[in-house]
Amino acid sequence: MLDANIDLDAFDDWQKAQEEGIDVPIYRPGSATDVLFTIRVAGPDSERFEAAEQRSIEERVAAQGPLSRGEEIEAGARFLARISMAWTLKDRAGKPVKFTEEAATKLFREYKPIRKAVDSVAANRNRFTLRSPTAFAEPSATS
Question: Worst-scoring range by mean pLDDT, 57-66, 121-130, 131-140?
Answer without folding.
Answer: 131-140
